[in-house]
Amino acid sequence: MSTPLPEEHAVLLTGPVLSGKTALVTGASRGIGRAIALRLGRLGASVAICARSRDDLERTAASLRNEGIRTLPIVVDLTRAAEVHGMIEQTCSHFGEVEILVNNAGLGMFGPFHERTESDWDAVLATNLKAVFLTSRAVAPGMIRLGRGHIINISSLASKSAFPGGAIYCASKWGLMGLTACMAEDLRAHGVRVSVICPGSVATEFSSHAGRNPATLLQPEDVAHAVAMLVTQSPQSFISEVDVRPLRKA
């Protein structure tokens, strides 16, 4: 029999415990990013959201505003350092220093590695790895000045398992694990926690999940819950890595 969570912990995950804090979520126009932005906003944070698609981003922003969440949608190419710098400046001028960064933007291209192109490689590595480096580098000085902060990278269980057709995607996610671990060592002395979440199969537009029973898939809200757990952990705690798996297999 499981033991119920203490009442104060339940409040911690639902009350406005992030009031006065600024969060930035990349790839927030739909799916996992949208769910994370909503969860952080419901916890009281002001949330800047970014993506490349203006229409989808504005729909997500409208959803947040309908719940009374302060939000700022920014259309940006995260693989360009100048645009990332502008995004951080705009966010800070609206809401203050970024205390929570969720690097969620991702791109998947699948198929036998010998049939993929150089441009496929460049696109996936730029989105899944370079963009995390650029965005994290841009917010780190502000977090160091504050002496606190959370950087949360959304990886995948594909960072730990090889599968046919996954060469480029797995390379990017295995690289993200190494980047995350080193970032954590660079920043922990400054009171900044860098964590990674590795979800299994999630029911989003990212992949068709052909032939899978939808009941066996994670939902975007499951990943958002893991983010909420990380940003509400106790001050002396550092949860560096979270694996999130569907309860039932296929």
Description:
The protein has helices at residues 7-12, 31-42, 54-66, 81-95, 118-146, 167-187, 220-231, and strands at 22-26, 46-51, 71-75, 98-103, 149-154, 192-199, 241-244. Mean pLDDT is 92; it is low at 1-12. The chain has a single domain, classed as NAD(P)-binding Rossmann-like Domain (Rossmann fold), CATH 3.40.50. The radius of gyration is 17 Å and the shape is globular. It has 7 helices and 7 strands.
Proportion of beta-strand residues:
15-25%
Give me the strand/helix succession. Answer: HEHEHEHEHEHEHE
Shape: globular
CATH evolutionary superfamily: NAD(P)-binding Rossmann-like Domain
Q: What's the arrangement of strands in the largest beta sheet? A: 3-2-1-4-5-6-7
Q: From the 3D coordinates, which CATH architecture would you assign? A: 3-Layer(aba) Sandwich
Total helices: the number is: 7
Rg, rounded, reads 17 Å
Distance between the termini: 26 Å
